[in-house]
Amino acid sequence: MRSSGRTLLSSQSQINQEKRKSKTMEETYLLNHPGVKKKILAGGTGPLPHFPPGAKLIFHFQTLLDNFERTVVDDSRLAGRPAEIFVGKMFKMEVWETLLMSMRVGEVAEFWCDAIHTGLYPIVSKGMRLIAQGKDPLEGQRHTCGMGNLFHYHSTGFPELDELMRTPQPLIFIMELLQVGDPMSYQRESWMMEKDEKLGTVPLLHARGNALVKQRKFREAASQYKEAVLLLKTVQSREMPGDVDYINLGRMIVPLELNYCQCMLELQEYYEVIEHADELLDKHKDCVKGYYKRAKAHAAVWNEKEAQRDFNMVAHLDTTLASLVHRELRAFSERIKEKYWQEKEAYWNKLDAKGETEEKVDEEGERDIGQDEGDKTEGKDWQQMLRLVMLLQEQGNILVKEKRFWEASNKFKEALDYVDVLQNKVCQGDDDWESLEKVRLPLTLNLSQCLLELQQYQQVVQLNDRMLQSNQGHFKLLYQRARAHTALCNEEEARHDWAAVEKLDPQLKPLVRQELKKMGENLRSRHTHQNKTYRDATREKWGPGKEVADDANQSCSHGVDNEPESDNEKKWSKKEMGAGNDSSAAATSE
User: I need a surface site. Which of 58, 199, 295, 368 has the fewest CB within 10 A?
Assistant: First the structure.
């Protein structure tokens, strides 16, 4: 009985051993895998390795055509570096994963693969060849799959691979498995991680970046923050927009993006900051730090309007930062002034040599442009003079803000001189002439405003008269001329201009009334100071030999008196001189 039991056990163990051997043979020679034939050229060492998901396989390969010459298509040894794939990570040549998992470490085997397994080999081969040349395998591709790019470009760039694309055929792969790496033995890239792995890696990258910032290693810290952002965006892309998880992931991205922008600011990569801040603020409109960092970047690249807009937004969103914003804007304004003066010294240092290029300013502050026009424009082409006009305008604007109106007016006058020179070089009515006329208008308005502040009212009238010939009905020109006429007590001209201003903008009616009232008071005080009677004022206004009747019935009729004054008239005139204020008031109402 005992011998029979032992016989049964031994036979059962033999059967199990044969099953294991047959299974090993099937795994080793891929007997159950259709379209694949394996031949072992050199045996490996040890048992068949375990291949968990994420295991790193390092191997050499050689690709041959299945023809009589066995033409070599690719050889990794000639490239000087072995190939690598990761188990379970959807490598394009899926059959390679199957082939390598049938090998032991150190084994060399030859595999014949049918055309059903080799259709994508040209794409894989192209990428490996580009990598071996030190190039990006995705360079120049459109945002589509590999096959889509092939259909777009109609070629892989290698004739032998194009032939394989046109006529799919069986291939022979000779492979040598060099190493099987444990999934935890190497730094895993983001595309290899699962969702939980990515979310667990983000805090580590964040802490590592913070530590590098403390060491002032901003470049390395920025790479850590950027990698963490990419991980979160990859996870977020798989969520439904608007869901709770999607929103929470977006909030996790914000501090990482801000830290990245701060590192880029320290590295003076300002356009990178603007790009990332734009993307961040498109999704998070109330991010104060995002506006502040973008404002700093705009200020660094001299985007004045954008910087002021973002700084003002910071003060609007957080009123406690108003003092900080004020300091930043003031410092930015100082830097702009320094920049303009540096540009002037660097490129336009001839501007200060006015004694050599211009005539001296006359007693009224006007220069004779015609005599020194050739000296001023000597050595300057069209673009240089245009650039000079814009530079002078900016300098004048800065001086106006500092209430240095005399210096500002000189800048605007000089800019207008260059505009005159440029317009003399083209025909009136041409596109260039019209463009220069558009440049002249703001310069004239600025100059007129400076002259108003300097109480040079007659110059304002003359300047705006010339501009209104080509800009009829321009509101600002009329307004400035009306103010100048009012200051000069040109009653009729002032009333005419104020009426035009009120017609253009009826909302200014109270202002017009106030200005006219002020002009009347000035006229009355002037007449009182000059001891003029009502008769003297009206005779001065209407001319000699004309007078205005006091009676309301005769207010619209003007009699011509060519006779000398009678004695009664002289007495009435003396009485009016004693009236003083009453006669002045009558003149004002007239």
Answer: 368
- What is the rounded distance in angstroms from the CA atom of residue 221 to the CA atom of residue 49? 39
Rounded Cα gap, residues 3 and 7, in angstroms: 6
Q: CA-CA distance, 398 to 392, in Å (whole number)?
A: 10
Alpha-carbon gap, residue 229 to 221, rounded angstroms? 13
Give the three-state DSSP class for 73. Answer: strand
For residue 489, pLDDT beyond 50: yes
Residue found by looking up tokens 């927009």 in the block: 241
Residue listed under structure tokens 């690598």: 84
CB-count exposure of residue 528 (10 Å: 0-12, 13-18, 19+):
middle
SS3 556: coil
Q: How far apart are alpha carbons 584 and 579 in whole angstroms? A: 9
For residue 170, count CB atoms less than 10 angstroms from its CB and return exposed for 0-12, middle for 13-18, buried for 19 or more: middle
Give, for 577, the enclosing helix (H) or strand (E): helix 567-579
Q: What distances in angstroms separate CA 93 from CA 36, 72, 85, 291, one per listed residue?
A: 14, 18, 10, 47
Q: How many CA atoms lie within 13 A of 547 on its CB side?
A: 13
What SS3 class is residue 333?
helix
How far apart CA 421 and CA 491 sit, in angstroms, is 37
* Residue 225 φ/ψ, nearest 5 degrees: -65, -40
Give the residue from 60, 53, 46 showing the smallest Cα distance to 100: 60
Quote the tokens at residue 483.
Answer: 């103010």
For residue 201 the two structure tokens come to 């890696």
84 confidence band (pLDDT: 50, 70, 90): confident
Give the pLDDT score at 184. 62
Structure tokens at 307: 């910087």
DSSP code of 348?
-
Which runs of consecutive H residues, i.e. helices, occur in 348-490? 354-357, 369-377, 382-401, 405-424, 431-453, 457-470, 475-487
> How many Cα atoms sit within 13 Å of 404 on the Cβ side?
11
- DSSP, residue by residue, 91-148: -S-HHHHHHHTT--TT-EEEEEE-GGG-TTHHHHHHHHHHHHTT--TTTT--SS-HHH
69-72 CB contacts, 8 Å cutoff, 24+ apart: 70/172
The segment with the largest mean pLDDT, out of 260-269, 408-417, 485-494, 528-537, is 260-269
Give the span between the Cα atoms of 334 and 344, in whole angstroms: 16
What secondary structure letter does DSSP report for 199?
A: H
> How many other CB atoms are found less than 10 A from the CB of residue 568?
8
Residue in the structure block whose two tokens are 């965006």: 233
Q: How far is Cα 254 from Cα 206, in angstroms, rounded to an integer?
A: 12
What is the rounded CA–CA span in Å between residue 128 and residue 96? 14
The model's pLDDT over 411-465, given as tens digits with 9 standing for 90+, comes to 888 888 888 888 777 777 677 777 777 888 888 888 888 888 888 888 888 888 8
Q: Which of 87-91, 190-194, 353-357, 401-405 has the lowest mean pLDDT?
A: 353-357
In the structure encoding, which two tokens stand for residue 117, read together?
A: 């397994």
Using the Cα atoms of residue 562, residue 564, residue 568 and residue 574 in order, give the sign of their dihedral.
positive
